[in-house]
Amino acid sequence: MSTTMTRPAPGRTVPYILAACTAVSILSTDLITPSIPDLPDAFGTSITAAQLTVSINLAAYALAQLVHGPVADAIGRRRLLLGAFVAFALTSAASALAPDIGWLLSGRFMQGLFSSVPSVVIVLMIRELYGPSRALAVMAIYGAALGMAPAVGPLIGGYLHVWFGWQAGFWFVAALALLVAAALWHQVPESLSVSHRLHLRGTLRGYGALLSNRRFLQPAVGVSLIFAALYAYVTTAPVVFIDLIGLPTERYGLTNLAVVAAFVAGNAIASRLGRRVTAARLLRLGALVTLAASVLLVLPLAAGQLGVVTMLVPVGLYAGSLALVLAAGPLEVLGVVADAPQGPAAALLGSLQLGLSAAAGYLSAQFYDGTALPMALVMALCVGLGAALILVAPLSGAARGSGRAG
After folding, report:
1. N or C, where is the chain less crowded by C-beta within 10 Å?
2. Residue 149's pLDDT band (boundaries 50, 70, 90)?
């Protein structure tokens, strides 16, 4: 089902506004993590209850996407996105004002419900606003936001916590949400015409067809597994660098900056390659390089050679090639079901990404044994299975890019 509308080309700022929507959304999931150790004292509660502030947000974030997809097909992308960011700002402010842990947990749950909308809507808008000739270049910008935000979130959150207290992170994302909403209102057009909108009941039925469609599930699960390896790393990396390697706490943030730099480089490559090759070829290339990176991470750690270089070189290679996967993967996944309702397809892809990421992070922490090897093995398992699914999947081969993002 084609949903591309005849319209003037979107303004040059639109790709960056859409990427900012994604970045602010993802930032809200882990910005609070540096504050968790201090929440028991702040609220007179247990560390277990404090840790729920992350898991309850992720649960709401993952589940709500399954509703947002059909709603986006029924009422349009822009209207849903604008309403979600206003509600996101309000629930973030309510969380900052929490007088007890119960209030904070409720606020985090509600925050997750609304902050998850961009994970569904942004990819759809990119496909509809730019079409196959330019979408891949814009997806490189989107992929940068999706990949970098989980890495820089704890870094920003740590500084905000030290300078202003645990509430500062919530006020920060509330302000960002309002700024993004204003930019959306003034700069970003609706991408789904009224004639292409679907009845809510019909789009909800689309989930059954998607769950039985191997051509959709294979690349969707593959992309999600490769992305999930990032959360296996993020969950355990602070312990590895600070406790095992002995890196001073104030210098740990530099390792995140190195990973972010690799993402930036990977997205520059994705943007350039996206004008010359199909999304399917770019996706397979990214899957192969992430697989090689995971092997390069496991081998020295299995030999007991743990150090900054043996960690950051393969993780940087993984991060750079993940940029290729995140640029091409969503386009390719949605492309294989182009004749089906796109809202449920995007929602299911987003839920798979976050659900498998949560599982990877849990396994990385659960099997930690005082070495970095379990983390590396979880990453290799995710990447290996994901790459295998992508390499054998019957991809569409659509979306060769030829234009600039803006």
Report:
1. N
2. confident
